[in-house]
């Protein structure tokens, strides 16, 4: 009957067969009907015939009313979680909800659920109440609160409510107002103050603090950071709802820098994305399929896109590559010892969140015709809300042929245009916009492309001041401070199964030989047996994950290789707490054995955190031989600003490449054009 149902709107062959049966057995007079009328009548009869079967059939685990076990929480589930907490007295109208999200079921349950075995839905909530942080585990299936407890000594992410509170408190503080008046500023509604996390440098601070540098926005224009008000900075205690202190330094004349960005959004031109191919990936609820690829997609408030059950195949046979992949953390340390700058060591993912990304505009942020995706989260009060179009999926030309060869000998020519699937989000955190693309190629390659753009963080200077060694002059009265961006990605590999190995692939010189005068190089692979951070010398090609319990048709173990690209790692002093709090930035890649809950490269609560949280805590000497392994590659951007990046930065892009190595026995892209 599936063929019949599908063919009513497509091929006529099954319908013709059904029509003949009906004419012969049930409705001989209908033989005089027109074909189109007969087709509509067929559809009606099929629906009537299937009604008893549909009523009797058991509900499937992934039917219209069932969720994939890795789907994010919907509005009803968020409301239920908060309702259960309120019913237990754990939440009031003053409670702030910093996170309400899905608890990933164990791998074994997820894989079982894919065979239509229902799995339990569980949520976690991080709330702030009475100047304390609490965690709740909530059984949504059983409609009960499983656990509730305080987490001592941690500070969760900054919320919009706290951002607004800090601004209101600063504007009402007489010390701050007097300092502004001494700089000729009396209309405080024309002042914008950023709400910045303060880092941690001595482990002595227990208050929930933010710092508030401010900008003169009286001239209007889209660049609100162009006119910093130097020498005034307030520190706000969010729990006490009070301004803790106001620092006032030397008075520097306000910047007169141009505020324009070249054009307005209304005047922006259309985006032409590499001759986009007008083919959309299939998307069944949260499952994405394109060519030989398939994966599950959910958007998390903290991490942004989480891609699970990533499979790649050849000639229709898809096999497991990664169980889960996502961004884990980003640290942006500024390289200035100045009092107003040294604390700026932002952990943007854990302190602010990458999931509530900017709303994307078709034809500008994404190509026209892209599949736009919306997300649902809990707001600061625990109420569900949706962000429309904060991710997009599209297929584009890769700009290069998938393959080509021209043969002079017989004038033959073989060429195939390249195409790739792109999942895009653009989180905006303060002055920076990050264009994050997950790119899936027909060759079986995955690229994680990160583009940094937006507005430089600047400070006002006297035009006659000497040039600084920690910053670049980008306008006559402005400097942009040197800084880094270190992204840590979490790649939970499952090559064919959970039992995988990791090896370092190197190029080494071959031993001298009497066979020829040549001195050649060869490849060498060193197994990694224990968890840890791995350094990359110039001889390292990359890090390969293989399944040594499986062989391809050539007798090789299938694998995927993470390639080393142009990327920076931390070089500042080990005595610097900002380095100790983001230890993941010191190595190009880390390797751990999978353990539930180990998802946070810099720890679960990086805001005002203590040193060596996250990855350093996960290392306990466990074996990674024939184990469930997780790789944590670091993508580093060292940013020395240039005048050409003002008043808005051209996009600076870096990438991580994850490519098949023996996963197939021949070029898998051939099947993409069959």
Question: Helices and strands in order, then pairings?
Answer:
Blueprint: H1 2-7, H2 13-25, H3 35-56, H4 75-87, E1 96-102, H5 107-113, E2 122-129, E3 132-139, E4 144-150, H6 160-171, H7 174-181, E5 191-193, E6 196-197, E7 209-216, E8 228-237, E9 242-248, E10 282-284, E11 287-290, E12 293-300, E13 304-314, E14 317-333, E15 345-347, H8 348-351, E16 371-378, E17 384-407, E18 412-425, E19 428-429, E20 432-441, E21 446-454, E22 458-460, E23 471-475, E24 478-481, E25 483-493, E26 501-509, E27 521-528, E28 532-534, E29 540-546, E30 559-563, H9 577-581, E31 589-593, H10 615-618, E32 629-639, E33 649-660
Antiparallel strand pairs: 1-2, 2-3, 3-4, 5-7, 6-7, 7-8, 8-9, 10-11, 11-12, 12-13, 13-14, 14-15, 14-25, 16-17, 17-18, 18-20, 19-20, 20-21, 21-33, 22-24, 23-24, 25-32, 26-27, 26-29, 28-31, 29-30, 30-33, 31-32
Report on this structure.
This protein has 674 residues and is mainly β. 14% of the residues lie in helices and 38% in strands. Strands 16, 17, 18, 19, 20, 21, 26, 27, 29, 30 and 33 form an eleven-stranded antiparallel beta sheet that branches. Strands 10, 11, 12, 13, 14, 15, 25, 28, 31 and 32 form a ten-stranded antiparallel beta sheet that branches.
């Amino acid at each position: 009957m599936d063929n019949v149902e599908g063919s009513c709107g497509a091929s006529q062959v099954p319908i013709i067969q059904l029509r003949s049966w009906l004419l012969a057995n049930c409705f001989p007079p209908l033989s005089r009907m027109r074909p189109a009328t007969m087709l509509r009548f067929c559809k009606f009869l099929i629906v009537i015939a299937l009604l008893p079967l549909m009523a009797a059939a058991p509900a499937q685990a992934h039917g219209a009313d069932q969720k994939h076990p890795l789907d994010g929480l919907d509005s009803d589930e968020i409301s239920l979680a908060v309702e259960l907490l309120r019913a237990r007295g754990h939440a009031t109208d003053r409670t702030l909800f910093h996170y309400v999200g899905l608890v990933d079921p164990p791998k074994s349950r997820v894989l079982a659920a894919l065979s239509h075995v229902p799995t339990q839905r569980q949520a976690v909530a991080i709330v702030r109440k009475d100047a304390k942080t609490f965690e709740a585990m909530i059984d949504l299936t059983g409609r009960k609160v499983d656990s509730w407890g305080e987490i001592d000594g941690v500070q969760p992410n900054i919320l919009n409510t706290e951002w607004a509170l800090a601004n209101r408190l600063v504007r009402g503080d007489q010390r701050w107002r007097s300092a502004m008046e001494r700089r000729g500023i009396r209309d405080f509604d024309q002042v914008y103050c950023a709400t910045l996390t303060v880092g941690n440098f001595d482990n002595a601070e227990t208050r929930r603090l933010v710092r508030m540098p401010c900008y003169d926005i009286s001239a209007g224009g889209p660049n609100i950071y162009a006119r910093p008000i130097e020498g005034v900075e307030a520190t706000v205690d969010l729990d006490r709802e009070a301004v803790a202190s106001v620092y006032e330094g030397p008075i520097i004349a306000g910047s007169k820098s141009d505020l324009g960005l070249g054009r307005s959004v209304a005047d922006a031109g259309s985006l032409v994305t590499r001759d986009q191919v007008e083919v959309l990936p299939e998307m069944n609820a949260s499952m994405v399929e394109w060519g030989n690829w398939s994966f599950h997609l959910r958007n998390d408030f903290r991490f942004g896109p989480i891609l699970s059950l990533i499979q790649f195949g050849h000639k229709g046979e898809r096999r497991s590559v990664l169980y889960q992949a996502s961004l884990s953390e980003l640290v942006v340390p500024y390289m200035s010892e100045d009092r107003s700058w040294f604390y700026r060591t932002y952990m943007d993912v854990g302190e602010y969140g990458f999931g509530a990304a900017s709303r994307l505009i078709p034809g500008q942020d994404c190509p026209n015709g892209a599949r736009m995706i919306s997300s649902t989260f809990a707001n600061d009060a625990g109420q569900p809300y949706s962000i429309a179009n904060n991710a997009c999926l599209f297929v584009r030309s890769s700009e290069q042929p998938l393959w080509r060869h021209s043969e002079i000998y017989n004038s033959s020519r073989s060429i195939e245009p390249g195409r790739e699937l792109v999942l895009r989000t653009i989180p905006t955190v303060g002055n920076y916009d990050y264009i994050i693309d997950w790119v899936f190629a027909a060759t079986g390659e995955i690229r994680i492309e990160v583009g940094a753009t937006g507005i430089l963080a600047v400070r006002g200077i006297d035009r006659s001041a000497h040039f600084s060694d920690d910053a670049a002059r980008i306008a006559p009265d402005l400097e942009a401070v040197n800084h880094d961006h270190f992204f840590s990605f979490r790649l939970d590999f499952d090559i064919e199964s959970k039992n995988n190995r990791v090896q370092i692939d190197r190029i080494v010189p071959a031993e001298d030989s009497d066979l020829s005068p040549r001195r050649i190089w060869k490849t060498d692979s060193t197994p990694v047996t224990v968890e840890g951070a791995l350094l990359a010398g110039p001889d390292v090609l990359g890090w390969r994950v293989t399944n040594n319990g499986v062989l391809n048709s050539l007798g090789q173990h299938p694998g995927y290789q993470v390639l080393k690209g142009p990327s920076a790692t931390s070089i500042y002093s080990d005595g610097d707490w900002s380095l100790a709090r983001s230890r993941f930035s010191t190595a190009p890649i880390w390797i751990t054995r999978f353990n539930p809950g180990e998802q946070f490269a810099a720890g679960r609560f990086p805001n005002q955190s203590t040193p060596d949280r996250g990855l350093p805590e996960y290392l306990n000497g466990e074996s990674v031989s024939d184990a469930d392994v997780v790789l944590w590659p670091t993508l580093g951007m060292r940013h020395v600003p240039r005048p050409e990046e003002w008043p808005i930065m051209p996009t600076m892009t870096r990438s991580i490449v994850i490519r098949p190595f023996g996963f197939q026995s021949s070029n898998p892209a051939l099947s993409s054009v069959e």
